[in-house]
Amino acid sequence: MAISGEQDHLSTEILNRGIESSGPDAGSMTFSVRVRRRLPDFLNSVKLKYVKLGYHYLMNHGVYLATVPFLVLVFGAEIGSLSKEEMWRRIWDSAAGYDLATVVGFLALAVVTISVYFLSRPRPIYLLDFACYKPGDDLKVSKEEFIELARKSGKFDDESLGFQRRILQSSGIGDETYVPKSLGSPENTATMKEGRAEASTVIFGALDELFEKTHIRPKDIGVLVVNCSIFNPTPSLSAMVINKYKMRGNILSFNLGGMGCSAGVIALDLARDMLQANPSNYAVVVSTEMVGYNWYPGKDKSMLIPNCYFRMGCSAVLLSNRRRDFHRANYKLEHIVRTHKGADDRSFRSIYQEEDGERFKGLKISRDIIEVAGDAIKTNITTLGPLVLPLSEQLLFFSTLAWKLLSGAKSPPTKPYIPDYKLAFEHFCMHAASKTALNELQKNLKLSDQNLEASRATLHRFGNTSSSSIWYELAYLEAKERIKRGDRVWQLTFGSGFKCNSVAWKAVRRIRRPERNPWLDSIDRTRRN
Question: Which residues belong to the active site?
Answer without folding.
Answer: 261, 340, 427, 431, 460, 464
